[in-house]
Write a structure and sequence with these properties.
Blueprint: H1 7-11, H2 16-48, H3 54-99, H4 108-150, H5 152-161, H6 164-206, H7 210-263, H8 268-309, E1 348-355, E2 365-372, E3 375-380, H9 387-394, E4 402-407, E5 410-413, E6 422-423, H10 424-428, H11 437-446, H12 450-454, E7 463-464, H13 473-486, E8 491-495, H14 503-516, E9 521-525, H15 529-533, E10 537-540, E11 545-547
Parallel strand pairs: 3-9, 3-10, 5-8, 8-9
Antiparallel strand pairs: 1-2, 1-4, 6-7, 10-11
Helix pairs in contact: 2-3, 2-4, 2-8, 3-4, 3-8, 4-5, 4-6, 4-8, 5-7, 6-7, 6-8, 7-8, 11-13, 13-14
Adenosine-5'-triphosphate (ATP) binds next to helix 9.
């Protein structure tokens, strides 16, 4: 975890302008700070010597006005930079995770933590810590150079004592890093556990195990609380330590200036300037130390996000590849090289397909051959034989360990299809271009859901809760089947589309799938013999062979 990693500028292009803006304002504020010390010293000297104070006072007012304007601009630029960068990181993370195969994505718990709280914590890091870092880089240097010109003994004291602050800050930072890492680990555990519990809550309640989770979540939360309190204790202690050290250093400068003033070896103006400039050399570094604790989460989140935002890793080359003919059955002679295959060509083809989950030693799929064109291809096999994995490979969500997949655009209906808060219409057209109501009703009719939707007072505009709340499991299954019918893709992949349906609803759905297969390539995983009976092609993963 570095205070600032320039890789951010490469990985998040949207961060460049705001961060450059922060640096420019920071330098201008540094110059204005030094000018204020000069103006104040002049005014005090003029007043002490009973000289006219009009000019120095006007000069001071102008400098203070400039500082006020710069401070306003600085706060505005910092606030906008914070939201811009944190929003850009979140958007880029989500875009990247959607673009890469599942095995290159972080675990759901880590992804949720990084995209939600992690990205949010980047905001204070950019808005508060980075401006402090710029000030710490500019103001002390300007103060020391100015001191060296006007009063070199004071400059010498500052140069000798100033490095103590970063050294202390670095020592404290190293301890904070461990505490922050522990906190992040506890937070990821908490998020992951909470996500699992919320997902499995209906099952846990059904089996009377819901209450037990209260204790488990309580225990994980306590771990997170303890880690947070440890970080806070460190933050308070380190701020106090840096404050004390800086105060002692300024006092040393002040005492030496005072002694020389009383000896008459230093004039009032120079002594005053030295006393005004000395704190300016220390406070920016103190502020960095204080802000670092507020921003430690953001810095940790950014360093965790940066590798994810790096240029896409080369996906592992398949160990062996096989020629994949066009699935426009059945002529191999018509097939070009795989690279010649137009992406929008209907159908999908897998050759010598094998897949091993990361971290596992045993392949789930091995040597699967499948060629599917317009029509219905049914995949069967015992539970755990890799049917869902095969659909994810055909959809391009996973990269085959062995073999190759070629195919047109796909629409995958998983066993846990995504339904979101919104109207029925929104959910039906999710990921589909806007379509007229008549087309939507036709799709609903095909799956036998038109009656239930028409019975709702608001029809297609009827609201739906998160995860399809408001519909039965069977209605949800038919809704996502209707959505698949509306999707303008080459290949529709269905994972047990009628698993939760009664026989009558299943018959509706089977008819809809059969109708869809007259114009699309449909690959359906099922345990239902009725759907198998409608298939044009059959892939049995138990036997790992194709029968027509
Ligand atoms: N994310 C994962 N990481 C590791 N192993 C996994 C993962 N998902 C599935 N598996 C394993 O891969 C195997 C095949 O799983 P898959 O879900 O593809 O089977 P399936 O044939 O669809 O089963 P079912 O008919 O019960 O739905 C199983 O042994 C499962 O434990």
């Amino acid at each position: 975890m570095r205070p600032f990693d320039p890789a951010v500028l490469r990985a998040v292009p949207a961060a460049r302008r705001p961060l450059i803006g922060l640096a420019v304002v920071g330098v201008a504020q540094g110059v204005a700070t030094i000018a204020t010390a000069f103006a104040l010293a002049q005014l005090v000297v003029a007043a002490a010597r009973r000289e006219p104070v009009g000019d120095p006072a006007a000069y001071l007012l102008v400098v203070l006005a400039v500082r006020a304007v710069l401070s306003f601009v600085g706060e505005t630029v910092a606030a906008s930079a914070g939201t811009t960068v944190s929003g850009a990181v979140r958007a880029q993370l989500l875009g990247r995770w959607l673009a890469v195969p599942a095995e290159q994505r972080p675990s759901p718990a880590r992804a949720v933590t990084l995209a939600a709280q992690g990205s949010t914590s980047i905001e204070p890091y950019v808005a508060r810590f980075l401006p402090a870092l710029v000030t710490a880089a500019v103001v002390p240097a300007l103060a020391v150079v100015t001191l060296a010109v006007v009063d070199w003994p004071s400059a010498l004291v500052v140069v000798l004592t100033l490095p103590l602050l970063p050294v202390f800050a670095a020592l404290i930072g190293a301890t904070t890093r461990d505490a922050t890492d522990r906190r992040w680990g506890a937070l990821a555990d908490l998020s992951g556990h909470f996500l699992d519990v919320v997902r499995g809550l209906p099952t846990l309640v059904a089996y009377g195990r819901g209450e037990r989770q209260v204790g488990v979540i309580g225990e994980v939360s306590q771990r997170h609380r303890r880690a947070t309190m440890a970080t806070l204790r460190l933050a308070f202690l380190s701020s106090a330590a840096l404050e004390l050290l800086a105060t002692i250093c300024v006092a040393i400068v002040a005492v030496t200036v005072g002694l020389r003033l009383s000896h008459g070896s230093l004039d009032l103006g120079t002594g005053l300037l030295a006393i005004l400039l000395a704190p300016e050399a220390y406070w920016p570094i103190r502020r960095v130390g204080a802000e670092f604790h507020n921003a430690a989460d953001g810095a940790a989140a950014l360093s965790a996000a940066l590798p994810q935002l790096a240029t896409p890793q080369e996906t592992a080359a398949p160990q062996e590849t096989a020629h994949c003919p066009t699935p426009q059955l059945p002529s191999d002679a018509e097939a070009g090289e795989p690279g010649d295959w137009p992406p929008s060509s209907p159908g999908v083809c897998a050759r010598g397909l094998g897949y091993t989950y990361p971290g596992s030693e045993h392949p789930v799929l091995h040597g699967v051959e499948l060629t599917a064109a317009t029509g219905l291809t049914v995949v069967t096999g015992p539970s755990g034989s890799g049917k869902s994995t095969l659909l994810e490979l055909l959809a391009g969500l996973r990269t085959p360990t062995v073999g190759s997949v070629r195919g047109g655009t796909t629409h995958l209906v998983t066993q846990r299809p995504f339904l979101t808060v919104g109207s029925l219409r929104d959910n039906l057209l999710l990921g589909v271009r806007p379509l007229p109501d008549a087309t939507v009703w036709r799709a609903l009719r095909q799956v036998g859901l038109d009656g239930a939707v028409a019975a709702q007072p608001e029809g297609l505009q009827s609201p739906l809760g998160d995860d399809g709340r408001g519909l039965s499991a069977g209605q949800r299954a038919r809704l996502v089947l209707a959505r698949a019918c509306l999707a303008e893709v080459d290949v529709v992949l269905l994972d047990e589309p009628t698993a939760h349906l009664d026989d009558e609803s299943a018959a509706w759905a089977h008819r809809a799938i059969r109708e869809l297969a007259t114009r699309r390539c449909v690959v359906a995983v099922t345990h239902r013999p009725e759907l198998l009976a409608l298939a044009d092609h059959h892939v049995d993963l138990a036997a790992s062979e194709v029968t027509a």
